[in-house]
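Retro notes
What went well: the complex prediction finally ran end to end.
Inputs used:
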Amino acid sequence: VPVSNIRNFCIIAHIDHGKSTLADKLLQMTGTVQKREMKEQFLDNMDLERERGITIKLQAARMRYMLENEPYCLNLIDTPGHVDFSYEVSRSLAACEGALLVVDASQGVEAQTLANVYLALENNLEIIPIAIFLVRFVGDIGMISREWELVENLEMYSLGTDDVQVDIDVAKIIDFYSFHPNKRLVGYNRRIGAYQGNVESTRASLVLNKIDLPGAEPDRVIKEIEEVIGLDCSNAIRCSAKEGIGITEILNAIVERIPPPRDAARSPLRALIFDSYYDPYRGVIVYFRVIDGTVKKGDRIYFMASPAMQDYFADEIGVLSPNQMQVEELYAGEVGYLSASIRSVADARVGDTVTNYDRKAESSLPGYEEATPMVFCGLFPVDADQFPELRDALEKLQLNDAALKFEPETSSAMGFGFRCGFLGLLHMEIERLEREYNLSLITTAPSVVYRVNCVNGDTVECSNPSLLPEPGQRKSIEEPIVKIEMLTPKDYIGSLMELAQDRRGDFKEMKYITENRASIIYELPLAEMVGDFFDQLKSRSKGYASMEYTFVGYRESELIKLDIQINGDPVEPLSTIVHKDKIAFKDCKGTKASYCRRKVGLLASFAKSHVHPTPAVTNR
Ligand code: GDP
Ligand code: MG
């Protein structure tokens, strides 16, 4: 089909609002997949994901759709639904011209709904030709006109980008600052109210799902979205992904409301990588969207941000329908995959730009970020014989996870193991290791990366508490701080504030986004969040609260090292860095000792299989 008949879109939603179910229905309705070949959910193809209802890996699917005798090619790019993957979500959005915003009509706006909308808007500003469309689409739910003075701000973002298609609509639509949580979130309800007088024509993209549920209240939710996000929802599509209601309307809306990609096939190749995975036979499979130029089978290609600075031959190029299907060439606007005997996903990272080695693009696509691990912990096999298997498992996992780092660690009590670095709240990955590779692991308490300012003027980064410089050498310790936003029904406000306070949270702001729901913002140490914070949030709110977090920077804090001895012998991998106030010396009763109790619980499970426990907690 001509580029004018291509539509690239993604679905943004909070977890459980029905993104996968809707994606499956779109695939079925377009005849892309037959019902019988359909697994539970085609787009989530890992067991773990299906069980936990989260999408870890992004996937893509190409669909054919006929509307008024015209054939269209619709590319759905899936986005991960977990709080740790906002960078990946942002790259998927950057690969699209439009987004469907799915909201559960029996629930309403959740933290991730908001976060993803912000991301969509942010993206607009990064990659103008793409972004514009996104906004229009999201905007379709409610184009908020804005005054001319703010338009200037938007144009500043578009300067310096080649091929800027500054569409004046866009400029009028987005109030970037009022949407952007980091910039000027305060009082956006009222502000948007003020703009609603100027709502423009719509290209609706809001999908209200689960209208079949008896508890569905589409009108209330629409009102909430209008108030909270400031979008006009008069064109919202009501659907039930489960029952198949409203699916045709959605397909038509995709064709009618999402603009086609820009026709830039003659420029040098620039393709945006939005996902990659390692295949043992063909090497890394790269999923990409061609933004400019074309890519042909056999082309010599180059990854612009890869430290390897190596070129490859594209052995295989194809489309995802949703299974891989080889083609000869892909043009600007299309979505596909390639393989080129690439050894590890670290050489073809999400967000990187693929270009042609013999005709390189002048600049890479904006928005690329290195993946750096935020959280570290020690992993030791319960059964020492499993050490080689653990190493194999980690190596395999690393082929697929550019952010995973690990190095060997040994201790006389724990034996041989690894110190590992992960991107975010790590239990997911650890669970995967245990399950997929049949390992039984001892996990030490997670640690973040501390910055230690030493007496001699050096600053060292430390992610392993046992390597912390001696007390005499250190002047101060800084720790990473995150800003969290919790959205919760008002009944749980007290309990959640208590939780955040207990985790050394610094209260920033609370406001009611609707009569019944509040947004609570805290800044707190990442170290306090990596453990069970998310589980606590869920259990204290009976599952109704949601959260998002962003890294804000490093801050000095009164931290000390907690060493743990078993039978009088220090077990170094169990050392942790904790705040002074969290330690109750030698005493593991009472509220202040909660930290110690958790520690000892962990020790006890370790000791069961190794030594007889008489754990003693000492401080130094
Ligand atoms: P995701 O996390 O956004 O991908 O959500 P899923 O597609 O996995 O759906 C979460 C749950 O909601 C599943 O149990 C679905 O069966 C259910 N669900 C999805 N769409 C609908 C719908 O339209 N109506 C009802 N009643 N349930 C739905
Ligand atoms: Mg899903």
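What we learned: Residues 43-58, 124-204, 585-620 have pLDDT under 50 and may be disordered.
What to try next: split runs per interface for comparison.
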